[in-house]
Amino acid sequence: MISIRLDQIESRYDEIQEELQNPEVSTNIQKVRELSKTARSLEKTVFKYREYKEINRQIAGLKDLLKENDPEIREMAET
């Protein structure tokens, strides 16, 4: 499934960000360049995927609100 692959990409991006914070890595210019280049290549995908996941969380929350019996809450969810 595509979400599994996107989760893997997101995890790799996070790992790279952690590596770049490591003082041992920061002294190795070549390693920093490689990691930075890889991070840049993943960045757009990761940011869009995170945006997608947030929108899905919001949709799920609104669906829950639609199930409420309170008419005011339902109206808020529908708008």
Describe the structure.
The chain has four helices and no strands. The protein has 79 residues and is an all-alpha fold. The chain has one domain (2-78). α1 packs across α3 (29-66) and α3 (29-66) crosses α4 (71-78). The longest helix is centred in the middle third of the chain and has 38 residues, at 29-66. The chain is elongated and about 60 Å long. The mean pLDDT is 91.
Topology:
Layout: H1 2-21, H2 23-26, H3 29-66, H4 71-78
Helix pairs in contact: 1-3, 3-4
Mean of all residue-level pLDDT scores: 91
Count of distinct structural domains: 1
Q: Hey, roughly how much beta strand do the residues contain? A: under 5%
Global Rg: 19 Å
Number of contiguous helices: 4
Low-confidence stretches: none
Shape: elongated
The topology string of helices and strands comes to: HHHH
Total beta strand runs: 0
**Helicity range:** over 70%
Structural class by helix and strand composition: mainly alpha
Distance, first to last CA: 32 Å
* Sheet of most strands: none
Give a quick set of tags describing it.
4 helices; mainly alpha; 89% helix
Short précis:
With 79 residues, this protein is mostly helical. It is 89% helix and 0% strand.
